[in-house]
Design goal:
By secondary structure, the protein is α/β, with parallel strands linked by helices. The protein is built from nine helices and eight strands. It has helices spanning 69-83, 95-106, 139-150, 156-161, 163-174, 184-196, 224-233, 248-251, 255-264, and strands at residues 3-6, 9-17, 21-25, 48-52, 88-93, 111-117, 210-216, 238-242. The protein starts with a strand and ends with a helix.
């Protein structure tokens, strides 16, 4: 089990593929034991890709203390150090996109190109859906709340018209095979606390690397309007809109290849 001692914590990571180095930073509650994941997509065929369970999540340490977005960014930079990578491309998805913003601001020399997917800057630029406000919802109750927010096409009328598909989606969304693990609830709570404090809006103009903002047209967690504001605020950033909700990287088969193309442009 590959772990790296970073900033006083043991962080679990996985690495696969070949090509230019790519750091993939995952979202809220991400756990590399959940399959399929980013290693099952096209990126490892084009990149030497690494990703990690962030502090408080998965098989990484879960200290029950306050976390900061700066710490998450420094953990990512520490993983690059552990691998001996001076620089890398970075893809940050959802909460991982928030971490990637901090990484680009705190460690600008480490990033070659940056993709920020279905994420937000916080502050005056707008925040993603406040998960900390629904932390009390569990299982099917949480799934039923989140489905129409994750993809705004999946509203009550759609659920009524597609009962079998909706039931299956509830089952998949509600599943959490690791829910009872020691420290899991505490680590997830600490991540949500840090997420709620995320705010890079005033600093976005300081991001100096080439950046792609990737958005889902029907995303109610990180709405398209927020992505448009981010793209306008980061110098030279490009906006790409894909046909899907918060999970557009799965829903639109063109999305992940387009991100790879951007990273590999000369």
């Amino acid at each position: 089990m590959p772990t790296a001692r970073i900033n006083g914590l043991n962080l679990y990571y996985e690495r696969a593929g070949s090509g230019p180095p790519l750091l993939f930073i995952s979202g809220t509650g991400a756990d590399l034991r959940n399959k399929p994941n980013q290693f099952d997509g096209p990126l490892p065929r084009r990149f030497d890709m690494v990703t990690h369970d962030q502090r408080g999540l998965g098989q990484s340490d879960k200290p029950d203390v306050a976390y900061s977005m700066a710490q998450y960014a420094d953990d990512a930079a520490g993983l690059l150090d552990h691998l001996g990578w001076d620089t890398a491309h970075v893809i940050g998805v959802s909460f991982g996109g928030m971490v990637a913003q901090e990484l680009a601001l705190r460690h600008p020399q480490r990033i070659r190109r940056l993709v920020l997917a279905c994420t937000s800057p916080g502050g005056a630029g707008g925040s993603s859906y406040p998960f900390h406000e629904i932390e009390h919802l569990k299982g099917e109750a949480r799934a039923r709340h989140m489905i129409p927010i994750s993809d705004t096409r999946r509203d009550a009328a759609w659920a009524e018209a597609h009962p079998d598909q909706y039931a299956k989606l509830v089952e998949l969304t509600a599943a959490d095979p690791f829910a009872g693990e020691p420290g899991r609830a505490e680590g997830a709570h600490r991540q949500l606390e840090a997420r709620a404090r995320h705010d890079t809006w005033d600093r976005l103009p300081d991001i100096a690397c080439r950046a792609l903002i990737a958005a889902g047209r029907y995303d109610g967690i990180a709405p398209l309007a927020i992505q448009e504001r981010m793209a306008a605020r980061i110098p030279g950033a490009r906006l790409a809109v894909f046909e899907g909700g918060h999970l557009f990287m799965i829903q639109d088969r063109a999305a992940t290849p387009a991100m790879g193309d951007f990273l590999l442009e000369s």
